[in-house]
Amino acid sequence: MRILITNDDGYQAKGIKVLADIMKQFGEVTVIAPKHHQSGMSMAVSLGFKQIAHKDLGEGWHYVDATPASCVKFGLNTMFLDNFPDVVVSGINHGSNAATASCYSGTLGAAMEGALNGIPAIGVSLDTLHPDADFSAVNKYFGDIFRKLMENWPDKHGIYYNVNFPNIPAEEIKGVRTGVQGMGRWIREFKEWDLQHYAKYGITPEMLGQSSTPKLEEGEDLYMMVGEFTDDPRNAPNADHRLVEDGYISVVAHNIDCTDYKETENLYRLFD
């Protein structure tokens, strides 16, 4: 099996190194990851005449100075041009991609790019932003999850899976559950930039490709986008973020086809 691995936290993140080690048991691993942190990029790509740097780091590792989806595109249009990989696995993300975070996620954007090209694709996330997170649960459970998904992959274009792990040790995991995308939104999302906010999560601005001493043009103010997630009371009991909160690993099936087919029937009555 030929496996293409990427992420949105950048090639130096602990999560992608753990994922690459896990996936070696399944076949030949090629890592093509962003040079810098690219969270929240969803399926954005590096369009036009933008200069895009690539570096071969050796032993199957590469970085590209581009978005996660563009990293997948780069792989499919260069080293995998004549023979696509058998699967794209994106992660392990430092931070949850459950609920509506999945709409913004660069981790899942990379999986979507794989699915768009007819390649089985999976996004994997752990519910903590800490750079030195405990990935023991992913180490213990993801191999079996991956094997089951690949052995039962549906004959349907556009499918990709979103796997989210709670931030607890492996021995505290309650099990694996099938989920649905939870709903909710963020409030109070913009706050004045505060260097101390980073320390709460064990990170620095430099880890995100930023500066601890940012320079502003005259008249500029500096903000940061953080926010607080508010749950939607209409969520089902198996909403993915609720499963994660309860100590379960959630697995959700997504599709790049965003059409609401039930509502389309109503539109037919209006316009056809």
Task: Report on this structure.
This protein is α/β, with parallel strands linked by helices and about 270 residues long. It has 2 domains: about 1-185 and about 235-265, 3-Layer(aba) Sandwich (Stationary-phase Survival Protein Sure Homolog, Chain: A); about 190-225, no CATH class. It has helices at about 15-25, 70-75, 105-115, 135-150, 195-200, 240-245, 260-270, and strands spanning about 1-5, 30-35, 55-60, 60-65, 85-95, 120-125, 160-165, 175-180, 185, 190, 225, 230, 250-255. The protein has a 9-stranded mixed beta sheet, with helices on both faces. Strands 9-12 form a two-stranded antiparallel sheet. Strand 3 (about 55-60) and strand 4 form a beta hairpin. Helix 1 crosses helix 4 (about 135-150) and helix 2 (about 70-75) runs parallel beside helix 3 (about 105-115). The longest helix is centred in the middle third of the chain and has 16 residues, at about 135-150. It is globular and about 55 Å long. The relative contact order is 0.15.
How would you characterize the largest beta sheet? 9 strands, mixed
CATH topology label of the largest domain: Stationary-phase Survival Protein Sure Homolog, Chain: A
Instruction: Tell me the helix content.
Output: 25-40%
CATH class of the largest domain: Alpha Beta
- Secondary-structure class: alpha/beta
Mean pLDDT: 96
CATH architecture of the largest domain: 3-Layer(aba) Sandwich
User: What is the end-to-end distance?
Assistant: 47 Å
Number of strand elements: 13
Strand order of the largest sheet: 3-4-2-1-5-6-7-13-8
- Low-pLDDT parts are none
Can you tell me the CATH superfamily of the largest domain?
Survival protein SurE-like phosphatase/nucleotidase
Q: Write down the Rg.
A: 19 Å
